[in-house]
Amino acid sequence: AQSVTQLDSQVPVFEEAPVELRCNYSSSVSVYLFWYVQYPNQGLQLLLKYLSGSTLVESINGFEAEFNKSQTSFHLRKPSVHISDTAEYFCAVSVDSSASKIIFGSGTRLSIRP
Amino acid sequence: DAGVTQSPTHLIKTRGQQVTLRCSPKSGHDTVSWYQQALGQGPQFIFQYYEEEERQRGNFPDRFSGHQFPNYSSELNVNALLLGDSALYLCASSLVDNTEAFFGQGTRLTVV
Asked: Smallest CA–CA separation between A105 and chain B, in Å?
């Protein structure tokens, strides 16, 4: 079975500061890795994903995540956050390519202080 | 493109009642998955439908059932509601064998 652990339930940071949201996973088979974002009162949106190839993946709004197989981690980073990044962030894994049975972590609430 | 749409947005039901939630997938998508997101937790996979059949199921009791129609829309039914069924229910659509799932805004179910 697969599981996802997000080590921080809340991360408060100041605007324009860097941030790292931590994610570790457990699986006996190869997995696909995702970060989803949930803005207040909205559904989930895919932020970025790792399927294969380069271990560093980037989103269009400046976030990046690096797949580290030896540490079974997929931490999310951004060098400079904005107020608009305030949201809940979910790390997730899937064991097949069909977007079925995505296993989510418990989420990290990112709050940006001006 | 309207994306994934769910109805209703909010619902209040009494313990023991039955409820039906609806989902229309993103245009062109043929696969629908349902998730339960309890307050303060991540979404948990309930089941997935493709070609009008349940393709995979998570660890949910038989009180949770679903259906997919020929137009790919889907329903989630929950019988004998419990207080613990109160949650945000999310629908996600995708193309079969594609990794990217698109989520709707969810239905907030409150059981009193």
From this structure: 6
Least confidently predicted of A30-34, A96-100, B92-96: A96-100
Handedness of CA A33, A10, A70, A26 (dihedral sign): negative
**What average pLDDT does range B48-70 have in this prediction?**
95
Q: What average pLDDT score do residues B70-77 get?
A: 97
Q: What does the pLDDT average to over A35-49?
A: 90
Residues of A in contact with B90 (CB under 8 A): 43-44
Comparing CA positions, the residue from B75, B76, B74, B84 lying closest to residue B26 is B74
Residue B29 vs residues A109, B49, B87, B96, B101: alpha-carbon distances, Å: 30, 11, 25, 8, 10
The pLDDT value recorded for residue A97 is 63
C-alpha–C-alpha distance, residues B3 and B13, integer Å: 27
Q: Does A32 touch chain B (CB under 8 A)?
A: yes
